[in-house]
Design brief:
By secondary structure, this protein is α+β, with helices and mostly antiparallel strands. The chain is built from 4 helices and 10 strands. Helix content is 25%, strand content 37%. 27% of the residues are buried.
């Protein structure tokens, strides 16, 4: 990402103001149903004017963006940035979402927002054989923000709420305490179904998350 220009995006609905920067080739748009369709259509038209080679893939890219936006909105995300490209007719996609999650367990008891405590509460997943899902847990320091808990790996995630099916994804999730609160955490989640590029996407998600700021 250091060799790629990035664009700063602040979501207007975040209660305390957040910003995050994306690679220039990524997309960001309104994920709410009311403005979603028009924004996606405008963005796709603009991108095709700049890159005419995408013209044959207009419907595929548009459908991919609609699905990403719907999934992000349905999950309660505040913000969505995504990559949707075709390389030699092979679709490559990834998303970065920013959400606010409550620091409470299923019984409603308050949980610590200290990154070390969050990391200790998250479990690792050790693969038994090649190709199995896996997850590592660590803490990171985000410049200008401070310490945060993180998981990264290749995991089986639910297709949708209430759906028992899962989809294996490259996944990096970073838990950032909200300053001045004891019950809210920002979750910056990067995901991609392109498992062969897991290491590269973990690096990209790390770089993007490193630009996160409260504003």
């Amino acid at each position: 990402m250091s060799e790629t220009e990035s664009t700063d995006a602040t979501h207007p609905d975040a209660p305390f103001g957040v910003s995050i920067s994306l690679p220039e080739s990524w997309w960001e748009f309104d994920i709410h149903p009311g403005g979603r369709e028009g924004t996606i259509r405008s963005l796709v038209n603009e991108r095709i004017r700049a890159v005419p080679e995408l013209t044959p893939y207009r419907s595929e890219v548009s459908a991919m963006l609609r699905r990403m936006a719907k999934d992000a909105h349905d999950s309660g995300a505040l913000y969505l940035g995504c990559m949707a490209e075709n390389f030699d007719s092979v679709p490559l996609s990834a998303t970065v979402t920013v959400s606010v999650v409550g620091a409470r367990n299923e019984q409603g008891a308050a949980l610590s927002t200290d990154p070390r405590a969050i990391a200790e509460s998250l479990r690792t997943i050790t693969p038994r054989r090649e190709g199995d899902a896996w997850r590592k847990v660590t803490t990171v320091d985000i410049p200008g923000v401070g310490p945060a808990a993180r998981t990264y790996g290749v995991e089986d995630v639910p297709v949708a709420q209430g759906d028992n099916r899962t989809l294996r994804m490259v996944l990096t999730q970073t838990y950032i305490p909200v300053p001045g609160t004891t019950d809210q955490v920002i979750l910056v989640s990067g995901a991609s179904p392109v498992l062969d590029l897991a290491e590269a996407f973990h690096d990209i998600f790390d770089a993007v998350t490193g630009t996160f700021r409260f504003v």
